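Quick one, tokens below:
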């Protein structure tokens, strides 16, 4: 369970309510995110997932509209839950302290939505080891 609300211009827009990391198979990490719409949105935000090392260097990433480009945020209804699947191709030399950064941004401006203490949620990488 995760409960981080992303805001734009001080208005709560989207809450990341859950995250599931499935086992890494053949250097692929499948992820499922569960979003909850907090408001109607005139902007179609994109989701970013960055796998980073301890220095914040991006090792792998996935960006796109939620639910494999099928559920733009402009169509979300307040209170609605959206299941959003992603997959990251991991580097073969994955460092032991890697983590995930998850957030949303406006593709027209690059501006990221904000959470209480930054612009992305940090999640440790579950290796299943």
């Amino acid at each position: 369970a995760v409960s981080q609300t992303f805001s734009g211009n001080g208005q709560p827009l989207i809450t990341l309510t859950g995250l599931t990391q499935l086992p890494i198979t053949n250097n692929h990490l499948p992820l499922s995110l569960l979003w909850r719409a907090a408001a109607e949105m005139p902007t179609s935000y994109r989701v970013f997932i960055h796998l980073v090392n301890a220095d914040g260097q991006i090792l792998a990433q996935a960006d796109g509209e939620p639910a494999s480009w099928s559920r733009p945020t402009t169509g979300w209804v307040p209170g609605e839950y959206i299941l959003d699947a992603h997959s990251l191709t991991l580097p073969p030399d994955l460092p032991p302290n890697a983590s995930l950064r998850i957030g949303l941004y406006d593709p027209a401006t690059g501006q990221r939505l904000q959470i209480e203490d930054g612009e992305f949620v940090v999640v440790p990488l579950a290796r299943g080891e």
